[in-house]
Specification:
Order of helices and strands of chain A: EEEHEEEHEHEEEHHHHHEHHEH
Radius of gyration of chain A: 20 Å
Largest sheet of chain A: 5 strands, mixed
Strand content of chain A: 15-25%
Shape of chain A: globular
Structural class of chain A: alpha/beta
Oligomer: homodimer
Number of helices of chain A: 11
């Protein structure tokens, strides 16, 4: 492995987190510090041919504003909310950015910039970030959940990211928890996501109100059905609203049961709960722990810690930079 | 790694498969050939203190009958139908042989015999065996199911057995497929095993007959309710018996849906179906393939081969020997 120029002079990478709404970009050093950060709207509507140019333009903007040349960077990581084919470094599924699908983005960006470029699933980056500098420090077998619009997971096995045979591992949001359940965004019925994602929770809340259930939810959302979010629902549940309590309890039960299954399958030392929904904190953590204790095999439940993520929204950016440093043989500070 | 004395002179290990009813023992060479085999009833009722002696006596019997000395053996592997704590080489759960629980059997046998001794979960051994010389040759990411009284699995990740943080990984039989389902042998409701194991299928068949369902099942079993086995039920289903068809279809649907979940989580290149129930062959294989094709994420379903095991009941014995050779640095013929 090529070593860095020494711990004293930290090296830098650019990490990009392409979300359904915003693209975040950060200059991250080999100590895991975010030196600078930027954000701009993700390009939903651009032609596929313009996607590499969008990424390249962002990277060049960071270099310019930071007064850096490309040769002063170790590399770039682009985090994608979708499935990557590891062999071809191609985005093969990205429901929120369909124009990005089919792109061999890693190679295209690498050629345009002359910089080593990684392409990675955002939930995998978050797992790497939490393991590097967050809740999972020093833990070799863990599963990190990103509870958001969908449910993503990154799996660390024997200290390394587990990507599966073609790079698509970790679709725990699509564990089938009720074979005859409601339709999921993936087209199949009864996936965990169709019961416990932010999208599902908000959908159940709107349905309940439209059906006339007595609830403070509409009031909390300022009278606007479209303004209901998972935060609104969890907030209403905390205040004792029966509709919100039932919806969150159901979602948490499915989440807990699925985590019990994950514990039975992986025997991980740690489960990390991150993503927007995990902002509800103890409100999710306490019942999930209780369900796993009751429903996973005792020997495995006894050996797993279930904790909240620590890096918040930065986990993916930090994990992406870690991937660049590791791939390029730069010594990182752990 | 210590190398063997050369490919020409094959080395030998003793592999033991402790089942709920019989204990099989084999002398296996480094080419994966079973040189000799023995079988005797498993000791359910002996005191815990006598368990190591039972194993040691079997090994000494093999040595004597084969005119071998201990120094001519590479080592011993004891396969257990239960959960092993890797760190202490202790049997921590073994529902069919409760007197064996709590035993640090690996160490005790090793001390008594002066031979390297591995202790391993039987389903893990079967996965290793099928990958060495069976259906999974050369496949780095696979999940091998042993469909029997219970449902065991061995998981191969990046070419190595995945045991989890304490050795309990692979309890896929205890994926929760219906959180409000019937009680499983593990004490929890709605595990895959409670719907699709041989034990469950036989139970559903007996229930149906006791409730007076019109079925050829009782006739096929010679009029004896206790003589109904999974073979009886699959046989009756093949002959068009509606009760047996419904029972097998339900079990296969739960199995297929769970394998779809496993495909979504692991993105394996191969799923291997082994164990007694897999003797039903195409009767299970064809519908499972169809369910996975429909219910797993397309990109992952497209990349997984679902096949029948090839080593039959010998998979565990052969895999156990492989583990001994690998652990002791003996070159195996692959």
């Amino acid at each position: 492995m090529r070593q860095g120029a020494g711990a004293a002079s930290k090296q830098r990478a650019i990490s990009m987190d392409v979300g359904g709404t915003f693209t975040k970009v950060a200059l991250v050093d080999s100590g895991g510090n975010i030196v600078r950060r930027w954000q701009e709207p993700s390009e939903h509507d651009i032609a596929s041919s313009e996607v590499p140019g969008f990424v390249v333009r962002l990277v060049r903007g960071v270099l310019k504003e930071s007064s850096l040349t490309a040769s002063e960077l170790v590399g770039v990581c682009v985090g994608i909310p979708g499935v990557i084919d590891r062999r071809t470094q191609t985005i093969i599924s990205c429901p929120n950015l369909t124009n990005w699908e089919g792109m061999a983005l890693g190679q295209l960006v690498e050629q345009a910039l002359g910089l080593p470029t990684c392409l990675e699933k955002d939930a995998n980056e978050a797992a790497l970030g939490e393991r590097w500098l967050g809740a999972g420090r020093g833990v070799d077998d863990l599963v990190c959940f990103t509870l958001g619009t969908g449910i993503g997971t990154g799996i660390i096995v024997n200290g390394e990211l587990y990507r599966g045979s073609t790079g698509g591992a970790g679709e725990i949001g699509h564990i089938i928890v009720d074979k005859d359940g409601p339709a999921c965004s993936c087209g199949n019925p009864g996936c965990l996501e169709s019961f416990a994602s932010a999208r599902a929770i908000v959908g159940f809340a709107r349905d309940a109100i439209e059906k006339g259930s007595a609830s403070v939810l509409l009031e909390v959302a300022g009278g606007d059905l479209d303004a209901i979010t998972t935060e609104t629902v969890f907030h209403a549940a905390r205040s004792g609203d029966p509709v919100a309590m039932r919806i969150t309890a159901d979602a948490i039960e499915y989440l807990g049961v699925s985590i019990a299954s994950v514990v039975n399958v992986f025997n991980p030392a740690m489960i990390i709960l991150g993503g927007g929904m995990a902002q509800a904190g103890e409100q999710i953590l306490v019942p999930v722990r209780e369900i796993v204790r009751k429903r996973a095999r005792r020997l495995l439940a006894d050996h797993v810690e279930i904790v909240l993520a620590r890096l918040g929204n930065d986990a993916g950016l930090i994990g992406g930079a870690y991937l660049v440093f590791r791939t390029q043989g730069v010594a990182v500070q752990e």
